[in-house]
TrEMBL record, chain A:
Keywords: ATP-binding, Nucleotide-binding, Transport. Residues 4-234 form the ABC transporter domain. Coiled coil: none annotated. GO terms for molecular function: ATP binding. SUPFAM superfamilies: MOP-like (SSF50331), P-loop containing nucleoside triphosphate hydrolases (SSF52540). SMART domains: AAA (SM00382). The keyword rRNA-binding does not apply. It comes from Shimia sagamensis. InterPro entries: AAA+_ATPase, ABC_transporter-like_ATP-bd, ABC_transporter-like_CS, ABC_transpr_MalK-like, ABC_transpr_MalK/UgpC-like, Mo/tungstate-bd_C_term_dom, NA-bd_OB-fold, OB_MalK-like. Belongs to the ABC transporter superfamily. This is Carbohydrate ABC transporter ATP-binding protein, CUT1 family.
From TrEMBL, chain B:
Its main location: membrane. This is Carbohydrate ABC transporter membrane protein 1, CUT1 family. The chain crosses the membrane at residues 12-33, 73-94, 106-127, 155-181, 266-283. PROSITE patterns: ABC_TM1. Keywords: Cell membrane, Membrane, Transmembrane, Transmembrane helix, Transport. It is found in: Cell membrane.
Length: 362, 297
């Protein structure tokens, strides 16, 4: 059983504090993704778990054991690095078997473990090549193979896909997910790409400036963002946000257009400055919308720009002076300047306090 | 009628060809030719007397030559290995220094800035059996000895090696340090996670990565040390009684003191084999080490 626990973990570089006392419980076998913009402390946190960075304060425990002062080799973890970090002078086979060789395991056991890992990742053809003779995707698979031969308690992935091209990234993402289903180990995965986070994670930990902003399943973060940062970070395209003021049962957007208050919104005072948020999926032109239950508000808007994506087209339009994006399903060609009638799905809208950015939810 | 013109490539290369011919090719051919004559500087007419391979036969059966040859090989082996070990150690320590590393790096190069002649004089003084620093230090520490540093054959070789190593260890240190700077950090971290102790990381990751740099330093220094002359000439002059005679002191003695230039040139051609062998050996090693790292080509 390998739970990983972080309690009040702090990282300081001299005066600069990179991680501000974060708490996190990771269950055995869970796939947790640390995500956030660059410089948010996610990689630092991962490297503290790995033992590659000293812990300035708080405790990290792996399987119930405080590991703060243990070197990486005594933590029984494996790590996959962004730049693969393969040993350039060793063949694929030697790379895979290196950790077992260092641990002085018997030769047969090494061969067996290496062949097994190679089988899982489809490396059999490449065993006698050097890393320099491999493509990016192959190198990444060797790096993953090197991690799995040891049957570690915890896998750590540090932005493993960011050096791959888009197509390969999608492919490797699936392989990582399959790998997790096979090995059933705890995985902690760092990325700045919210799509990776959404698709891979059992739970997402969203970080900013060394703090954890929100922890939850991908759908929790998508549907119930705690603040505007989460709302705009998770989901593509990012959530539309328009400034507004509460007036009775409506929100007046930028002093021009008023929309009814969503029923999901929590207690608001009259005259409170808010940000009104909704996703492109919830603003659809009539006739090209996904039929959904719930309250609807209709708006006439003119399209300024279109981005056809095939099954849908992103429409850029102007709502109360702010550029917002809408989605057109079963699209037809739209020319910029065209006036369309839109349905806004009010039940899926969010209201955030303008000052704190926190969601106001009932 | 058109005039025959030299092909363009030849015209363009001609300046380079002329310069190389003047400074390299002609002297080389001349010295090669003279090694087949009993050419003596004091009797120029001997240059026109062809004696075939007489000089070479004489060298090959000359115990003094082979003694100098063997001593040079020994000198090379010891000096290169000690310099490698010290240079590697210094580079590894320098790599850990976080504050004032630039300054240290500059200071490290100081010995290389001195003329070998001056280094020779300096160590001649340090190892002098009467007024030298070493003996004075020994005596003031209570050892009532006056070691004949530059007189005893073995001690004199040691003293010369010491001077040579003092002067040139930084060549290794600098090149290996450059290697350490160029080394990616990720594999080392991966090794840590894979369970390596610091020594295992060094042995299995750092050292293989440094090998090309070490062989480059080896190649440069083997050529350098194989023509060791100035320090030896100043400190002992190859003496006393030829106990520290290396190839180049022997050659210069033969050529300029005994004025037997033909013989000296023949020695030069034999001893150049030594340099060529060492260079080929280290270049092979270098290519192999580079291929190991996937840097071949």
């Amino acid at each position: 059983m390998t739970e990983v626990t972080l309690s009040k973990v702090v990282k300081k570089y001299g005066q600069h504090q990179a991680v501000h006392g974060i708490d996190l419980d990771i269950q055995d076998g869970e796939f947790v993704v640390l995500v956030g913009p660059s410089g948010c402390g996610k990689s630092t946190t991962l490297r503290m778990i790995a033992g590659l960075e000293d812990i300035s304060g708080g405790d990290v425990t792996i399987g119930g054991r405080v590991v703060n002062d243990l070197p990486p080799r005594e933590r029984n973890i494996s790590m996959v690095f962004q730049n693969y970090a393969l040993y350039p002078h060793m063949t694929v086979r030697e790379n895979l078997g290196f950790s077992l060789k260092i641990a002085k395991r018997p030769e047969q056991e090494i061969v067996k473990a290496v062949d097994e890992a190679a089988g899982i990742l489809g490396l059999d053809e490449l065993m006698d090549r050097k890393p320099a003779a491999l493509s990016g995707g192959q190198r990444q698979r060797v790096a993953m193979g090197r991690a799995i031969v040891r049957h570690p308690d915890v896998f750590l992935f540090d932005e493993p896909l960011s050096n791959l091209d888009a197509k390969l990234r999608t492919q490797m993402r699936v392989e990582i997910k399959k790998l997790h289903q096979k090995v059933e180990s705890t995985i902690i995965y760092v990325t700045h790409d919210q799509v990776e986070a959404m698709t891979l994670a059992d739970r997402i930990v969203l970080m900013r400036d060394g703090h954890i902003v929100q922890v939850g399943t991908p759908l929790e973060l998508f549907n119930r963002p705690v603040d505007t940062f989460v709302a705009t970070f998770i989901g593509s395209p990012p959530m539309n946000l328009v400034d507004g003021v509460v007036q009775g049962e409506t929100i007046v957007l930028n002093g021009s257009i008023s929309v009814p208050l969503p029923v999901t919104a929590g207690p608001l005072t009259n005259g409170q400055a808010v940000k009104f948020g909704f996703r492109a999926d919830n603003l659809m032109p009539i006739g090209h919308a996904v039929e959904e239950e719930g309250a609807v508000h209709e708006l006439d808007l003119s399209v300024t720009l279109t981005e056809p994506l095939g099954t849908e087209t992103l429409l850029f339009t102007n709502l109360a002076g702010v550029e917002v994006q809408a989605k057109m399903f079963n699209p037809r060609p739209v020319t910029p300047g065209e006036q369309l009638q839109f349905r806004l799905m009010l039940d899926k809208c969010h209201v955030f306090d303008a000052k704190s950015g926190q969601a106001v939810r009932g | 009628m058109t005039r025959r013109r030299l092909p363009e490539w030849l015209v363009l290369l001609l300046p380079a060809i002329i310069v190389i011919a003047a400074v390299v090719l002609i002297p080389l051919l001349f010295s090669l030719y003279s090694s087949f004559t009993p050419y003596k500087l004091t009797r120029p007419s001997t240059l026109w007397k062809w004696v075939g391979t007489y000089n070479y036969e004489k060298i090959l059966s000359d115990a003094k030559f082979w003694a100098a040859f063997g001593r040079t090989v020994l000198f090379l082996t010891i000096v290169l290995n000690v310099e490698l070990l010290l240079g590697l150690g210094i580079a590894l320590m320098m790599n850990k220094v976080t504050w004032g590393q630039r300054t240290l790096r500059t200071i490290l190069m100081f010995p290389m800035m001195f003329s070998p002649i001056l280094v020779g004089f300096q160590f001649k003084f340090i190892f002098n059996d009467n007024i030298g620093l070493v003996n004075n230090a020994l005596q003031s520490m209570g050892f009532n000895v006056a070691l004949p540093w530059l007189v005893d054959g073995k001690l004199a070789m040691f003293s010369i090696m010491f001077a040579e190593i003092w002067m040139s260890t930084s060549v290794f240190a600098i090149l290996i340090l450059a290697g350490l700077f160029a080394m990616p950090r990720d594999p080392l971290e991966a090794a840590k996670v894979d369970g390596c102790t610091p020594w295992q990381s060094f042995r299995h990751i750092t050292l293989p990565f440094l090998m090309p740099f070490i062989y480059i330093a080896m190649t440069i220094r083997s050529l350098d040390v194989a023509r060791a002359y100035d320090i030896v000439q100043i400190m002992t002059g190859g003496g006393p009684a030829r106990r520290t005679e290396l190839l180049w002191t022997l050659m210069s003695r033969t050529g300029y003191v005994d004025a037997r230039m033909g013989l000296a040139n023949a020695m030069g051609y034999v001893s150049i084999l030594l340099s060529i062998l060492f260079t080929i050996y280290f270049f092979r090693k270098l290519s192999a080490a580079r291929a190991e790292l996937g840097m071949a080509g």
